[in-house]
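Human: I hope this is not a bother. Would you mind checking the protein record under this note? Thank you for your patience.
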Amino acid sequence: MKPFNILFVTQEDPFYVRIFFEEFMRSYPRLDEIKAVVIAPTMGKPSITALARQMYDFYGAKDFIKVGSKYVYYKARNFLAEFLPTSRFFSIRHACEHYKVPVLYAGNINGEEFLSTIRQLNLDLIVSVAAPQVFKSALIAVPRICCINIHNAKLPKYRGMLPNFWQMYHGEKSVGTSIHRINDKIDDGDILLQKETPIQPGETLDSLIRRTKKIGANLMVEAIEGMRAGTLHPLPNDAAEATYFGFPTQQDVRQFRTRGLRLL
């Protein structure tokens, strides 16, 4: 079969997105096809201060201290890994280096400088994994086949941000994982593959996200192989049936906890 030239676009996240890439790179048989993993600013935030403020508002003081301490630990271990080899990965870049996958950094994935760079890679496919910036038409037009995205909900329901949170919030018994084509609307393109995963009794949002990142990585392997073989049968992502949710507010998180649910 003809090899694919693949580019991933993501954000640096040592907690969850890293898990996706660890599992994907462990499972995908042709890592030489990955021309680069592009890392954009986390949550689209221009500074660590802005990101910390959003995380504090989401987690609250007690959980923010837990998450912040873990973040500092991951950063320190990632730095030490440069000098003391370890079998664990503490960043996406660390995992990429282990698997010899190039890493690029981009402040604006829709900017002409970035587009000019990736046009030279002769790409067949661009994959969004928690990309923090919306793909605009010029970027969508770059690859020969298409751009695709992985979204942790059973589309067209629960479009938008942090879908695992909202599925738990609304009392769903399972969460979805969808891989879909990217068009000029958010989470709107045709669905290529979907999978449902039961929410376990007493499961926290943290454990659910970790579990579904691994599931999503293996579903992405299946999707790429299906696109290569031409065996996928896209399904409509009907906007008339869609629901959309933004990033949870402090009030949303309070309601989440009132319903007996936990973030960590």
About this structure: The chain has one domain: 6-258. Residues 6-258 form a domain with the Rossmann fold fold (CATH 3.40.50.170). The chain has a mean pLDDT of 94. The beta strands are 6-11, 34-40, 103-105, 125-129, 146-151, 159-160, 174-181, 191-198, 244-245.
